[in-house]
Amino acid sequence: MTNRVVQLFSLACWGISWLGASPSLSVARTEVVSIDFGTTVTRWDLDTGEILNRTTHSRPVRNLASMARLGDGTVVGYRTSYQGLSPALFSIDLDTGLAELIKETNNSGAAQFVIATTGLPSGDLLGFDNRRDFVLIDPDTLIATDITFSSPDLERFIATGGLATDSLGEAYGWLSYSGGANLFRFDVDNAIATRIGGDLRYALNSNFNALAFDSDDRLLGFTEINAGNAGGDFLKNAVYEIDTTSGVATLLVSDLPQLAGVRGAEIVLVPEPLSAAYLLAGACLLVGMRRNASA
What we know:
By secondary structure, the chain is mainly β. It has helices at about 5-20, 275-295, and strands spanning about 30-35, 40-45, 50-55, 65-70, 75-80, 90, 100-105, 115-120, 125-130, 135, 145, 155-165, 170-175, 180-185, 190-195, 210-215, 220, 240, 250-255, 260-270. Strands 3-2-1-20 form a four-stranded antiparallel β-sheet, with no helix packed on it. Helix 1 (about 5-20) packs across helix 2 (about 275-295). It is globular, with a radius of gyration of 23 Å. The relative contact order is 0.17. The model is unreliable at about 10-25 (pLDDT under 50).
């Protein structure tokens, strides 16, 4: 490469640096797919809040009270038995928002009033049922087995609206209990729940209606329109990032009307086309490497 070409590239790289462009070639947009009031599936941009797609379902798909990702990658919504409908599991297309029935049952052993679910490495769903507390659900039959987690903090359990599983298969949930509200980690095999955060305890009514991990294992919590009522610590219609080591919840964005009735959420990372600036930035890196190698 001639000195003249190197000079031109150096000048271009200086311009990119001055404009604040990053030389990173990893470009992606974070989108969220959420269930609202059990009837509407909405896809939206996490950074801007822009709604990209919204699908409202008719009665048979109503009462979807949670979202979860199964081991094969299928995203599902669990329908509760409110309003006379029987428990059912639907697959949810993250691109279109359409829901397709997988399984419906009138079996009395099925979990009837599930408000939170997450997929487990075993293939089962860990769920929370308003009448039965924690349950393990077979997605093929919807038959649920009660599971009682041992924890000194859960002598009197109150509620959870959000469960999620990271890429290592660790299950987490945000629980409101007699001592406050915190993030918990679940050892399902040994039925142990561990509160995260040491002395940190949020106010009793500080709730998340949905939890979801992104592809980098960043845990996000979603609040609805009633957040902050009765002394809760979180803003309504908001997204928080939750540190899975410290249990601290940090506000990312609030005042998102599409979260008013959020009941479940999944994260989608969307690659974006590389702009000319990013391609030039990559060339800058190559030139820099060539120059360093020849020095």
